[in-house]
Amino acid sequence: MKTQILKRFFIGVMALIISVVLPLSSQVRKNVDAMADPSPDPPVIHKKDIEAGLALQKTFVTVSKAVIPSVVNISTTSLITTHQNPIFNDPFFRQFFGTPFNHGGPPQKHVERSLGSGFIISKDGYIVTNYHVIKHATKVTVVLLDKSTYRAKVVGKDPMTDVAVIRIHPRHDLPVIQWGASRDVEVGTIVLAMGSPFGLTQSITMGIVSALKRSNMGIEQYENFIQTDAAINPGNSGGPLINLKGEVIGMNTAIYTTNGGYEGIGFAIPVDMVRRVLKDLMTKGKVVRGWLGVSIQNVTPVIAKQFRLPGHRGVLVSDVLADSPAKKAGMKRGDVILGLNGQNVLDANDLRLRVSQISPGTDAVLSIIRDGRRRNITVRVGELPAKLSMMGGAAPEKSPSHFDNVLNGIMVMDLDHDIRGQLNLPENTRGVVISAIAPGSLAEASGLKRGDVIQEINRHAVTSVHAYIRVARHIGKSENVLLTVLRDGHHSYVSLSP
Question: Could you confirm whether 203 is annotated as catalytic?
Fold first, then answer.
């Protein structure tokens, strides 16, 4: 009996083991097989994907072959003279403003060599490049794709847009670049940057247009840059920025960098601007621009509050030049310009660019706000002068530099005959001059400098150190301040916020 029971128990155990172990061993084998070959079915590369990639690659090759022959290398030799600014020769001025330049001695001359790029715009040898490439050049040399070398002559230059045109006399017709239109460019457009970075001739990089209408970069007076991430390095300046049609849409000009090399942000002058400048340079020998005769700046929230403006839009007139078109039309300092010829004004750079493109002698209608009221003023636009200029005993009293408000860190002193002479100011100039600014102060961060003349605080005139101290002591710790500042003969408003 016992034997039968044991047999039945043994048969049951074996059946249980078989029912559990066999499936487990089968799964283990599957897992091992999966580990040995984790991707038994490789992804399929579709023919249409390959063809699309090859088509794009072919476009790059075709465009490169077509455009590169019209891109040139430019090398310059310049004789640079280093000398001390004569304003700092005066011991009186150095007593208060220090000696930020060298300490005297005869002028020093040295030879400087640089490299750049350009592109051919005519069969008979006209070439476009950046003004800064040939700025101080005493000798300009152009090297073509076939390594032929020519001495070039500067035909015209425009420092305000950093555009220049030079010419060589080739022995045969030259390949000419194809013009595009920068107004058609959109963010995301694929572009090729061509030139001679670090002297490596006929180099090409690829990227996209990252942004448009970049301004206030402090690079040129008239800015409307195309921003790109196509690698632009020293030596690329003056080279073309090309679209996939093989058309030039911009001229490579500058880079944003902290180490001198490419960091992913480059700037190109729009080709529409380049062509307008070239037309004037080659037909008139100079660039003719419209001019109002005002100093302008953007409206900030602080300025909008001080001037009781309904919003933050518009451009503030910080100064009106004597005998200028704006002065003759009745414009005043403190006017806020909202529109030009029926179109809104975006910012100071937008207004400056649009006015510059108006033919001198043409009437322009400005929509402004003055003392809280909106009105229109008609100005007959003038021509931008070749060189703008203005009329140009006891130690002066100094102010304390410590205030428990946003003026903390600024030291000012009275204007007198000697300081007016050193700063080239007319005798009737009133205000206090900044003699020192504490490092790391809010004033330093706002851009104020030694030599700036403060004429108003919160729209109230400041004519002496006593007046400055009286006003400064009554400014609250958390109060915003608007300064009217005179620098280099021009007024501007500087807002300080805690």
Answer: no
Two tokens at 91? 């011991």
Residue 85: per-residue pLDDT: 47
All residues at 6 or more sequence positions from 340 whose CB lies less than 8 Å from its CB, including other chains: 351, 354, 355, 364, 365, 366, 367
Catalytic position from the list 132, 203, 356, 464: 132
Bridge partner residues of 319 (DSSP): 295
What share of residues in the chain are helix, strand, coil (percent, to 5)? 25, 35, 40
The active-site residue out of 75, 210, 215, 237 is 237
The whole-angstrom distance between residue 326's C-alpha and the CA centroid of its chain comes to 27
Whole-number Å distance between alpha carbons of 3 and 140: 114
Q: CA 26 → CA 17, 31, 34, 36, 405, distances in Å?
A: 14, 9, 12, 15, 81
How far, in Å, CA of 234 to CA of 200, rounded? 10
Is 132 in the active site?
yes
Separation CA 109–CA 463 (nearest Å): 44
Catalytic residue of the set 75, 114, 162, 229: 162
pLDDT for the residue numbered 87: 44
Structure token pair of residue 424: 């080239």
Pick from 210, 176, 175, 178: nearest CA to 191: 210
Backbone angles phi, psi at 198, to 5 degrees: 55, 25
DSSP string, 374-442: EEEEEEE-EEPPSS------PPPPB--S--SSTTTTEEEEE--HHHHHHTT--TT--SEEEEEE-TTSH
What is the four-CA torsion angle of 102, 106, 112, 118, rounded to 10 degrees? 80
Question: Which domains are delineated in the chain?
Answer: 70-84+108-167 (2.40.10.10), 178-283 (2.40.10.10), 290-383 (2.30.42.10), 410-496 (2.30.42.10)
CB crowding 183-213: b at 16 or more within 10 Å, else e: eebeeebebbbbbbbeeebbbbbebebbebe
Q: What is the mean pLDDT of each run of 10 residues along the chain (498 residues)?
A: 56 56 54 56 77 84 91 82 48 46 51 82 94 88 93 91 93 94 90 86 89 73 85 87 94 76 83 92 86 85 78 83 90 91 88 90 92 90 68 42 81 79 80 84 86 89 82 85 88 88
How far apart, in whole angstroms, are the C-alpha atoms of residue 330 and residue 384? 19
